[in-house]
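ingest -> fold -> write
write: protein_1
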Amino acid sequence: MGSSVEETSSMSNIIIPQEWSEAANTVASSASSPPVTFVCGPKNSGKTIFSRHLVNVLLQRYERIAYLDTDVGQTEFTPPGCLSLTVIDKITPDLTIPCLKTPVRCYFFGDISPKRDPTMYLKCISALYDYYEKEFNTFDLSGHTALPLVVNTSGWVKGIGFDILVDMLKYISPTHMVKIRISAESKNLPTGGFWLDERDDASATLIEISSARQDSLKRSVLVQKDARLLRDLRIMAYFRQCFPSEIDITTIKELARALAAHPPYEVPVSCVKIKHLHNEVPSSEIFYSLNATIVGLAVSSEDIDHLPCCVGLGIVRSIDTLKKIIYVITPVPHNTLEKVDLILQGFIQIPNCLLQVQGCFSPYMASNVLPVN
């Protein structure tokens, strides 16, 4: 069974080392049913690639896998700035290609790092794990079985980042902990069960593996890419969904032109509450701060944690301050958009490459009146 995943991974120019395969097989063959696996390590150590490989291996034994993405800067299945729980039911042939999926639960954190608000960051992760426990970690009489969970983390493992990691581990209490180490020893996490107190039950299986930069033939194993470029590509891929797949949009210029011509939704200000997630904005400045930004489109929650569920992102194309209408470009379907009663503003930026296409008018502007086709 394991060879098929290794062959597929090799086809995508990623060589999965034997140490990684053994680690994934240890999790998949675990007596823990289902396993809850926490993957951590410093930046550029291969956490995401290993997590995706682990999901592929688990899918050979389980029909579905739950994936908790806690890396707001380098998200796996959503645009940047989101914390999400996604259920996966198909093997990913190419581990190098990011792919957008619709999560079963998503929160818009609105930043690419937890630094501005670690408390809210941890609150969102705890709520996502609680949702997994409630919806996907139970057995019922109809034969539905609990799903394994893979938790992918960011590479911020020092200072406050270390404290956040420890808090996450204590809350989730994984059955397996996969710790990836790099050659720069000072950047690694401490050895052993660093998150456990003396009174804690050390029940997790700890697996330590090395980062896979090269194989024995000096072939590249991990694909290193610019973090900001990856975020921009994910944002562009997300808003590409505004258009049918059969429409030929293959370049940034074509996407910019298509967005410029795309009719926005009209959102009456009276129908939504506007909230900045990380700054206090005077009421007189809200429209100015909101214009030409990427926002989270959310639905108020009646759950005990009161965290609004994010149904997608939108670009505020312009605002008619006289009619009090916000014009939003989004791939969120109309029937879902009708439920949105919160517009959340953070610090997720429109890619500069969409704003600087020569010979193309930017679709994001300040205007009191904007005709809608």
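write: protein_2
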Amino acid sequence: MPRQTYHPVINLEQEGRYAIDSPGSPPNLLEGLSSQDTQLDEGEERFMVDPASREDPKVRELIQVLIDWVNDELASHRIIVKQPLEEDLFDGQVLQKLIEKLENVKVEIPEVTQTEEGQKQKLKVVLDEANRILLGDQGWQQPKWSVEMIHSKYLVAMLHLLVALARHYRAPIRIPESVTVRVSAVQKRDGLLHHRQMIEEITATYDEWGLKQERDAFDTLFDHAPDKLNVVKKRLMLFVNQYLNRLNLEVTDLEVQFQDGVYFILLCGLLEGYFVPFYDYFSAPTTMDQKLHNVNLAFELMMDAGLPRPKARAEDIVNLDLKSTLRILYSLFSKYKESSQ
């Protein structure tokens, strides 16, 4: 059976597009720069994150998710990264241990003094290894981090690097989507300081393979129309219960009850009219690997039924990402809604 192309329902798409907020006037971030910050060499540029932007809930969530991930990876080394993130990452020592753990290699660091220049030499070795892993032979691709950026405690560069590592190694975490940070840049040219402001995109919307996607109706519903989002959730809950009730099962929490993949598997079988053998999946999963196995099996069953590859990662479902769960359920609803009426 040929695979079908995913088309969202028109009214949901329209609801998802109607609200777009335009950013207000940016503050004068030069006021936040100390006199030392403005002691720049000719041609040197320095970046600063807008303090208000750093307090944005999405930015705070992303920072905490990344800190928790790094701490989980380095627990055996008894390394604990805390807020502010910049203070623990700027000299490269934590990054060195993280890359060694993820890549299962030993990063050979030269014996240099603990001066600022010595720290930068060590950091360069670590970032060269990170660039080799993340960029390979793509010499044309400019990384969004550098020795100067990391060592000067530029948060945005650190977030770019950690997000890239997490996606490369398919970390079992839910990385918040559509995270942006307002940044002020100051550069000295011809003896004068020149100031510019910009919006830095840290994360966009990603598919299962970490590839950037266009925002869809669910993104906008989550951001701007929670009341309409609740209507969509109720409709999807009615749809899944119409089938799961046949097994004396009932869903009251879409986010939690589909998290381990069992209900997804049962729902796929009910919709297509077949029984999935118990030996094919874990009926009472307890570990992350077992839950990921179940969700990935559900994805395979969906594709076997002619649905497109799910626009979500199994890790996001297991980590209780409601938006990803709704996307999967909505794709099932789109295919089977006629037979459920």
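write: annotation protein_2
The longest strand covers residues 192-203.
The first helix runs from residue 10 to 17.
pipeline exit 0
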